TrEMBL record, chain A:
Family matches, as Gene3D superfamilies: 1.10.1740.10, Histidine kinase-like ATPase, C-terminal domain, Winged helix-like DNA-binding domain superfamily/Winged helix DNA-binding domain
Similarity remark: Belongs to the sigma-70 factor family. ECF subfamily.
Keyword entries, A-Z: Kinase, Sigma factor, Transcription, Transcription regulation, Transferase
Species whose genome carries this gene: Geodermatophilus sabuli
Molecular function, one GO term: DNA binding
The protein's name in its UniProt record: Serine/threonine-protein kinase RsbT
Keyword Transferase set for record: yes
SUPFAM superfamilies associated with the record: ATPase domain of HSP90 chaperone/DNA topoisomerase II/histidine kinase, Sigma2 domain of RNA polymerase sigma factors, Sigma3 and sigma4 domains of RNA polymerase sigma factors
Location of the Histidine kinase/HSP90-like ATPase domain: 259-358
Coiled-coil regions, chain positions: none
Gene Ontology BP, a term: DNA-templated transcription initiation
Pfam families attached to this UniProt entry: HATPase_c_2, Sigma70_r2, Sigma70_r4_2
From TrEMBL, chain B:
Domain of life: Bacteria
Organism: Geodermatophilus sabuli
Matching SUPFAM superfamilies: SpoIIaa-like
PANTHER family per record: RSBT ANTAGONIST PROTEIN RSBS, RSBT ANTAGONIST PROTEIN RSBS-RELATED
Designated name of the protein: RsbT antagonist protein RsbS
CDD domains: STAS_RsbR_RsbS_like
Length: 359, 128
């Protein structure tokens, strides 16, 4: 049995994708490709976490195809890692020094890909983007120059970045989109514009087009700058404090307001405590978000017994320990987005997001 | 404890002043509660001021611990005033759905002590 909490507070326009309903499907896909049970469990959780992370950015009807695509990718990358590991073992046995990766070449290729992607933008898009990103011009002064508004310029910049990401991926992966529909679909995914995703029927295209299925994942997850993630293992009481302080530090660096910083730290404290109380151990991962605007994402994950009835656990007054049941509904009120995926006997993943208020 | 002290409990006349010096984890909060309640009994304190200005958050566990301390103090004949709850922390408590219950709060130590005197004047002590 599995259950899921809706994403977003009740007052939010954010739809509530039923991620838990995807668990049997994801499990089927993974189990068909991976023999051992423990790995299947891991990969299912990994897939669900990624789907949850992207849930706010895709329109609800697209969640199932996205889960299918993600499950396949997760399995594929696991095999790739194992393969790499095997080759590495071989190398150790051979006692041959591993070839030093030529980082200069890699960086050079990356620069070349960005440069090539930039040439694929329109003149106006390119000029505005470079003025903003390279010369550091703010949207207000650009708006004056372009005879537009700061909001419109910001929106345009977001669309341009979304296009640049698509073109950059195409260049660096050395693929030419196989159909006419690929670019519009990739663009809709990259920009996170749900209405656009519906209009171009992105969901169906992902299932039909192998290229877009592969590229969609980096595009959807780009908001999660992995290098900027802080991972706090949570095993005991002291780790609860460590987790909320990690969140506080990142939120401070991202210039959240003092009030929001305290709200975030409090929510993290509640979720970390749930891990210690119910699952013995787990982790809290705190990540900076850049799109659609600056924010902070917190994933609290454990492999504990799971929550049998998440809907109920999200209700105020639901008693879990010591007559204190405010953990989930309380933390949910503190954050902008909040989602729970739990599988009985397999663990719980809570994903929460706070967006920075307009400065 | 060899590490810097996490909290201190000082006697001032009939009152105890308990100050938290840093962010406490759950077990440290539990120890704080145990030590303080014991001191209230041992010192026959009539009033307790708890200064929590150094606490980074007051989540469900922290709020509950403060409420429990005040309740246990009451059962031992002492009035509790909590001081130093930062405005952001107070806001987070409300959003979280927690409050300090019927516990009296005040801005800072001075006000807390004044509040204690007012409470004690209003309700003359029952004989111990
Ligand atoms: Zn395609």
């Amino acid at each position: 049995m599995a259950a899921v909490g809706p994403v977003g507070s009740p007052d939010q326009s954010c739809a509530s994708p039923d991620v838990a309903a995807l668990i049997p499907l994801v499990r089927r896909i993974v189990a068909a490709r991976v023999p051992d049970r423990a790995t299947v469990d891991d990969l299912v959780q990994e897939t669900l976490t990624r789907v949850l992370a992207a849930a706010g950015r895709v329109e609800p009807g697209m969640l199932e195809p996205y889960a299918i695509v993600t499950a396949r990718n997760v399995v594929a990358s696991m095999w790739r890692d194992q393969d790499r590991h095997r080759r590495h073992q071989h190398r150790v046995v051979d006692l041959r020094p591993p070839p030093a990766p030529d980082e200069d070449v890699l960086a050079g290729e990356d620069r070349a890909a960005v440069a090539e992607a930039l040439t694929r933008l329109s003149e106006r898009e390119r000029t505005t983007l470079l003025a903003h990103e390279v010369e550091g011009r703010d949207t207000r002064s650009l708006a004056v120059e372009l005879g537009s508004t700061a909001g419109a310029v910001a929106a345009q910049l977001n669309r341009t970045r979304a296009r640049l990401r698509v073109e950059y991926l195409l260049v660096s992966e050395r693929v030419e989109p196989p159909t006419e529909r690929c670019r519009p679909v990739l663009l809709a995914i990259s920009s996170g514009e749900r209405r656009r995703q519906r209009e171009v029927d992105a969901a169906r295209h992902l299932l039909e087009c192998e290229v877009c299925a592969r590229l969609s994942e980096p595009l959807m997850e780009r908001g999660r700058a992995r290098d900027d993630a802080v991972r706090v293992p949570v095993r005991g009481d002291a780790d609860i404090v460590a987790a909320r302080q990690a969140a506080r530090e990142l939120a401070t660096r991202l210039r959240f307001s003092p009030t929001d910083i305290t709200l975030i730290a409090t929510a993290v404290s509640e979720m970390a405590r749930n891990i210690v109380r119910f699952a013995d151990s787990g982790e809290v991962v705190v990540t900076e978000l850049e799109e659609p605007r600056c924010g902070i994402s917190i994933v609290a994950r454990d492999a504990g017994p799971g929550i049998p009835d998440v809907e109920r656990a999200l209700q105020d007054g639901y008693s879990t320990y010591q007559g204190l049941g405010l953990g989930l509904p309380g933390a949910r009120r503190l954050m902008d987005e909040f989602a729970v995926v739990s599988e009985t006997g397999r663990g719980t993943t809570v994903t929460m997001t706070k967006w920075r208020g307009e400065a | 404890m060899t590490s810097p002290r996490l909290f201190s409990i000082l006697r001032q006349g009939l009152h105890l002043i308990a100050s938290v010096h840093t962010a406490l984890d759950d077990s440290q909060l539990v120890r704080f509660q145990a030590d303080l309640v014991e001191r209230i009994g041992a010192d026959r304190a009539r009033g307790v001021v708890i200064d929590v200005a150094a606490l980074d958050v007051l989540d469900s566990f922290g709020s509950r611990t403060l409420r429990d301390i005040a309740e246990m103090a009451r059962l031992r004949g002492a009035v509790t005033v909590i001081v130093g709850i930062q405005p952001d922390v107070a806001f987070a408590m409300v959003e979280l759905g927690m409050d300090t219950g019927s516990v009296v709060t005040a801005l800072d130590l001075e006000e807390g002590l004044a509040e204690l005197d007012r409470c004690l004047a209003a309700s003359p002590l029952p004989g111990p």
